[in-house]
Write a structure and sequence with these properties.
Blueprint lengths: L1 E6 L1 H10 L1 E2 L4 E4 L3 H7 L4 H21 L9 E6 L5 E2 L13 E4 L3 E2 L3 E6 L5 H15 L3 H11 L4 E3 L4 H5 L1
Antiparallel strand pairs: 1-4, 2-7, 3-6, 4-8, 5-6, 8-9
Helix pairs in contact: 3-4, 4-5
Amino acid sequence: MRVYVPLTLSGLAAAHGAGEVGPGPLTAYAVTPGLREWYVSDDIEELEYAALNRAAAASLRMIAGSPDEVRRRVVVAVDVPDGAAAADPDHGLSAASLGEVRIAAALPLAKAAAVHVDADDAEKDVAAAADALGAADLGDGDAQFTVDGAEDHELLWFGVQEIPQLIG
């Protein structure tokens, strides 16, 4: 099963230094039954893209909670054994936790399939989205529009061997 772990650039640097994403337990995103039902698709690539976007939204929340963090969303894609990621059945259809899974232990960075990171030109929109997130959560339509502006930026794909250049 492929899981998408939300991070920040400083979190990616820490993972690179430690050789693992963790410690556990970790919150990640994956193609869960709840995500399948919400997305209404049988195309695994579309479903994985939806899980990646859920992780990107979680990365934005991490950025919003850390004023000194670089304003670029980061998601690490890792393949784990099927039993390693567990969805919470009580939150399975909650809009806030669609695709959310828990992983008990740290994940070796060597097992990562890819790293997805915003391009430099997304920083302004990600910064604005991080600032607007609280108001968007409270139902402010203009703030939600600002948050959606960050989601308009596609995360770029990087190989694990490119992490030193990303965090450098």
